[in-house]
UniProtKB/TrEMBL annotation, chain A:
Ferredoxins are iron-sulfur proteins that transfer electrons in a wide variety of metabolic reactions. Its cofactor is [3Fe-4S] cluster. The lineage of its organism: Bacteria, Bacillati, Actinomycetota, Actinomycetes, Pseudonocardiales. InterPro entries: 3Fe4S_ferredoxin (IPR001080), 4Fe4S_Fe-S-bd (IPR017896), Fe-S_cluster_ET (IPR051269). It comes from Actinomycetospora cinnamomea. The keyword Iron applies. This is Ferredoxin.
From TrEMBL, chain B:
The keyword Oxidoreductase applies. This is NAD/ferredoxin-dependent reductase-like protein. GO terms for molecular function: oxidoreductase activity, acting on NAD(P)H. Residues 324-396 form the Reductase C-terminal domain. It comes from Actinomycetospora cinnamomea.
Amino acid sequence: MRIVVDWDKCTGMGMCESLAPDVFEVDDDGSLILHTEEVSQDQEAEVREAVAACPTEALSLEGPIDA
Amino acid sequence: MTHLVVVGASLAGLRAVEAVRRDGFDGEVTLIGAEEHLPYDRPPLSKEYLAAEECPDPRYREEETFAGDLDVELLLGTPASALDTAARTVTVGDRTVSYDGLVIATGAHARTLPGTEGLEGVHTVRTLDDAIALRAALRGGTSRLTVVGAGFIGSEVASVGRRLGLEVTILEALETPLARAVGERMGRALTHLHRRHGTEVHTGVAVEEVVSRDGRVRAVRLGDGTEITTDVLVVGIGARPATDWLEGSGLTLDDGVVADETLAAAPGVYVAGDVARWPNALFTDVAPGTMRLEHWTSAADQGGRAARHAVDPASARPYETVPYFWSDWYDGRVQFVGIAAGDHVEVVAGDDAEGGPFTAIYRAGGRIVGALAVDMPAEVMKYRRLIGARKSWDDALELAEQRRQQRAEKARQAAEQQGASA
Ligand SMILES: Cc1cc2nc3c(=O)[nH]c(=O)nc-3n(C[C@H](O)[C@H](O)[C@H](O)COP(=O)(O)OP(=O)(O)OC[C@H]3O[C@@H](n4cnc5c(N)ncnc54)[C@H](O)[C@@H]3O)c2cc1C
Ligand code: SF4
């Protein structure tokens, strides 16, 4: 499963980082850094939470969960 | 469980119906909303929507999505007027809708200044219709904007006013704006942001009268007799939870619908969003009692949670959260996580004397309970995790030190690079 960021929508709020810090981080200038695009099985729950929590609905998930 | 009914078709209501469908709930779902509009996003209404040359479309989903993917019956345009928790019915116009599980997500209404109803040039900002009207008012040859209330929404409107080149005055009843939301010292720090951008701020003033002529606002008269002439008056004095329709329902109403830690207000009835008051277990040790938030994030979150509990009460568990809100002022962003309670606030980065950039953290009961940042987007979310994990004050100071070193290292590298390319 892959994370897709709509870069036009993301405004660097960082809700995603507070829920899944290994995956998302907001840089000092407010831009989002994606530490990984692929979501592993043990990250799935928190990444799903991050997707739901993004106030600009900038995040979505694509593809199947890796075995 | 066969029929989930959600009252209030905004953020919390939308997230409610989406969450149960995503979980595979295959019963009937009805979403009831007082406004004609499909659910739309409110934060832009006091920001981009007013400021941008072209207004963005604030709707979350297309109409087809509700009928199609979500398979939700939408009842828009008529408010629910009564709830019978014994018969498990909601009254909407002349219809009676039966439910097995109910989510109350009716949000809040903007407070108004008594005596200004119907006066041209006087605005609140809560609904899309409000924003459409204000957007036009700010452009129609207006030169002076006065905002009553230095809260977040009032401050955002003031920011937009300056961006559009207007003379802007904010009138605030409290000595320190936002003292309840962020504390005294930080309230003062945020007020600097206004002054830095040329907005006049009068604190500790009472609005005595709104002066009008020919049905249009002309000025605001203060308690000491001063008159402030204005073309547009925006009233940003907070919101009152939309609970009128629940009078007599037997639910406990006290500045919101009071619920237990699982968001349950009565058997089968759960609350979410701006209307919900519940004990947030994460903070009951330092701020006893219940809390009601008016933040995007908790409304979204509680919407999903309340609906899941409503369709499967056996699965209900306590809902706790670290509150989060943001607010866009001028060209910058204010972010707050946690609660502003406690005995000490410490500025751990930047300088609050001139209104930022800075980051401050809040201490209560020996642990970190809040963090505020102005124009430091990388900071608050790191503290949000500590707050959620009930980490100690020392842990927070340690993170602050670590961040200080990281920023210094970055600055050093940037300087080096600049030196190399020069
Ligand atoms: C202008 C503005 C700017 C904001 N900016 C920010 C921000 O920058 N950051 C942030 O974190 N939060 C912000 N917020 C707060 C955020 O938008 C709210 O917390 C969120 O909208 C709450 O969602 P809700 O669904 O609980 O309630 P609401 O969005 O208030 O929706 C409730 C809905 O229920 C309907 N309703 C009411 N009574 C009835 C009834 N009897 N029957 C049927 N329907 C009914 C209402 O018409 C409304 O559509 C802002 C809010 C506003 C108004
Ligand atoms: S929460 Fe959304 S807006 Fe914020 S940084 Fe993450 S993706 Fe961007």
